[in-house]
Write a structure and sequence with these properties.
9 helices, 274 residues, two-stranded antiparallel ribbon, 36% helix, six-stranded mixed beta sheet, 8 strands, alpha/beta
Length: 274
């Protein structure tokens, strides 16, 4: 009877999904905000408004009417967005008004969107690896979420290539999910780490957004809001299902709850890219 009880306990133990721990995390912080990052241009309210006034379409016409300029100025003044946030150089060049009528073809393009993603993600992940003392070839899972920019090669491939990760690393990219993408990425990591095929594994979860190709240059007020509220940034989290990491982890993941409201037209169209 004792042997059967011990065997039953052992089988239950090995079938129990492992706990998931957050070892540590980092966020991109520019020097103007007390961090170490030097990528991006400080997005002071004054500089943003000056650049908006000088914005031109390829035919030389102004992008924003006087009413649109006044609306953006009002939103920024009441938004609590700090002067210590940053924009990519594709939107705020080093020299005021430098892009001029060439902005849409020479600055707000795929190349600079990819550069923005690299500048935000690579330094953030490098800081995390240094902080935790983890070598890139020890990471078994890479998940990147970025709603507005889904290039080829993928953003997860960018990380694998830059940090020279191992050939059997599992990579995933999540897009088109808005602000819900980060917890969805954590949930995906939890599900993979809980599986029997991924014992003693580290998962890198990176969240970012990309505004180079999404700086709205029209005069519809609802769409001008994104110009005023979004800035550059990234975060990186290192998750683990290794039992030994329990003693050095910051947190243990207890619950992830997701409710998908996509069946509602109002919810489905709450964030709608055009």
């Amino acid at each position: 009877f004792r042997r059967a009880l011990v065997l039953k306990w052992y089988v239950r133990l090995i079938r129990m999904p492992p706990a998931v721990y957050l070892l540590d995390f980092t966020t991109y912080r520019h020097k103007v905000a007390g961090g170490t990052g030097d990528k991006g241009h400080p997005a002071t309210h004054e500089r943003f408004m000056d650049e908006s006034r000088l914005a031109r379409h390829p035919d030389g016409s102004v992008c924003f009417t006087a009413d649109s300029i006044a609306f953006q100025e009002k939103i920024i003044a009441t938004s609590s967005i700090s002067d210590n946030t940053v924009f990519p150089h594709s939107i705020l060049p080093r020299k005021l008004g430098e892009h001029g009528a060439k902005a849409e073809t020479c600055a707000l393009n795929m190349e600079n969107a990819r550069l923005e993603a690299a500048e935000m993600m690579l330094s953030t992940v490098a800081d995390l690896l240094e902080k935790t003392g983890v070598a890139p070839d020890r990471i078994g899972i890479v998940i990147v979420n970025c709603s507005l920019f889904c290039p080829t090669p993928s953003l997860s491939a960018m990380l694998v290539n830059h940090f020279q990760m191992r050939a059997d690393v599992l990579t995933y990219n999540l897009g088109g999910m808005g602000c819900s993408a980060s917890p969805i990425a954590v949930d995906l990591a939890r599900r993979i780490l809980s599986g029997p095929e991924q014992r003693n594994t580290l998962a890198l979860v990176v969240s970012t957004e990309n505004i180079t190709q999404n700086w709205y240059r029209g005069n519809e007020r609802s769409m001008l809001l994104s110009n005023c509220l979004f800035r550059c940034g990234a975060s990186a989290m290192l998750l683990s299902n290794r039992a030994l990491d329990r003693w050095r982890a910051r947190f243990k993941l207890l619950h992830v709850v997701r409710t998908h409201m996509g069946m509602s037209d109002d919810c489905y169209r709450s964030v709608y890219q055009e």
